[in-house]
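User: Fold this; tokens only.

Assistant: Input:
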Amino acid sequence: MTHPDWTPVTRQGRGDTIGDIVAAGADRIGAAPGVGDEARELAAMIDHTLLRPEAARADIEKLCDEARRHGFASVCVNPAWIPACASQLRHSPVRVCSVIGFPFGATLPEVKAFETRMVRDEGAQEFDMVINVGALKSRDDALVLRDVEGVVRAAGYNGTVKVILETAYLTDDEKVRACHLAQRAGAHFVKTSTGYAPGGATVADIALMRRTVGEKMGVKASGGIRDAATALRMIEAGASRIGASASVKIVGGGAGAPAGKY
């Protein structure tokens, strides 16, 4: 399924600049005053993330300010903070992303769909849902499919749905099956991790996911990406979006908001 926010990958690999990477598969280009071209292009591929349970309103406001200033693709926050982010970013190109069924994905499909509708109505435009890992490992593909389909329907035509596979818990065969189910359900991205599992994104997993979903679906690398070199390795392997709490550091802008497990 091709989504308005997703530009198909036309070739693999990284050229001499981030501009080449963006031409090869980035789904957004943005600009921020005072940021160099390469950092600006990298920033446009990053979901600036703060999912720590102790995050306070001041932290969320800082996150939004940084996202606007650096030109990040979105801010990714817990559902309770969606109204605040939507209000602060209303006149900004930065999108607002909510996690769904976070962090374990083990709730009922109807609950995930309801949560999606609620945050959509509060201003969320992107939805990072956690797959039902136990159902996948039990080979209950019908439940996994229904789970994702419910979120896709609730997100609406303009919503972008990213399916978190939690790759640290899966075999390669299970990762491939999860990718195929996400595609069948109409999701727009597959994503590696919540940041709460024993492991995060790896180059091998990104490459496997890209091979599996092909060119018409996004791949988001998240979990343990704390510097530009790691982000670029993920992009070279096939990632079209990066989830990070160290986003400001990655683009060379300083310490940024309080770091989380991303």
